[in-house]
Design brief:
mainly alpha, globular
Amino acid sequence: MSKYRYVMRVALTVAGGGFLMGFDASVISGVVKFIEPQFDLSKIELGWAVSSLTLTATLAMMLSGPLSDRIGRRKVLFLAAILYAVSAIASALAPTFVVLVIARMIGGLGVGASLIIAPMYIAEIAPPTERGRMVSFNQLNIVVGISAAFFTNYMILQLGQSDAGWAQSLMFDEYNWRWMLGLETLPAVLYFFGLFFVPESPRWLLLEGQEEEARKILTSAVGEAEAREELDEIHASLAKDAGREKVSVMELFAPAMKLVLTIGVVVAIIQQATGINAVFFYAPMIFEQSGIGTDASFAQAVLVGLINLVFTVVAMLFIDRIGRKPLLVFGLFGIAVSMSVLAFGFSSASYTITGDDLAKLPAEVNVPAVADLQDTTFGSDVEFKEALRGALGDELATQYESNFINAAIAMNPWLVLFGVLGFVASFAVSIGPVMWVLFSELFPNRIRGIAISFVGLINSAVSFGVQLVFPWELANFGSATTFLIYGLFAAIGLVFVVLVLPETKGRSLEELETILVKDSA
């Protein structure tokens, strides 16, 4: 039990990088509504404000694996903690849109590093029988961070409307989005100091010839007998690589790597192409499209975070019991169904502004300019938003879009809530945590760092694209078509998993290398 507690403590500490990643990525969901009118952003600029973090995260993913092979996993995590803190402070103080984007990009470097190195580190120290659960701690912390971001965004929004003197003195109303972004400084500092109590990866130490130190850490983690066994397996794996030249990215494309590389690339694409970061990064915006208003949309975003947390825990409980493949099959099917529900819900919506609706709109809206829209029914959100822009101009239409949608829409908002929550639950119980477990298991010891960086790069690049174009998609394709596209990607992923993916649970990393990499000599 003491050994288990040791590994759990180390894994949870390292997985603190996941919390920061989840918080940093999702806190922007509450910010977009306020920075769009403040900085007078176009839809693509708004997408850039969100996705810029992922752009540099993609770069960090490409570099952090090789960097961790050179200087160690632990030092890269220290660097990530510093980047998170600098980003939080700079984002909160940003005077212009450009400075805000630069600050977010600094945070993206931390996101990319921790997203790659934390699960890699945990996989290298955890016992094979507990590896899936331990690596999933990182995903668990990611969703805790996401939930925390949704919750603190909602609380800051409520504090901005509070009459309490202390809340007014801190200017939560005027500086709401700055508070949302700046709060990340505290967990970043805590993570930095927590890493002082974490040892270096034993497998990396062996690669560096530090066998005695590696033996001590493995003994603490798995016990003396199992440590000797693992050391023998690692030595055998390293001996097989003896005499080879320095690891090159071209080794990924060797014939022996065809299966594992194909699995890694396809899973990396599908995880993001199903739209998870569109939901997490724009959750209040999505709920506002159903006409429930700003406060309710922020409250429902908190519910998204809680569902994500609960079903990630469910995945952790079952990933080492029933395996990776069954979870993926169940989850991808659920994603496809949930996105179909969202597409149906928005496709059945209509938009009509009555005279009574116009009377309830904010006084500052130029009501006579939209008089021609009164009692006209629009069959899609795209048509309705185009009519608003024609009547009010881009700036006012953007500022008061939520008010007009809330007044005009006729649809069942419960379908939207059910679809989003069903999607998040399906993602969280499957491809969310399982992808990173698979990445930590698929690739041979010798090239694991560069291989995880490569597939992580692809995953992050797809995520960047999804985040960048989502506001533009909503404006030009409409909500129904956008979510239908995500559902189609889930269906494609489901077919691939059923036909191609092998099960990896319960096997050592060296055993998996023998099974999956047929000719690694």
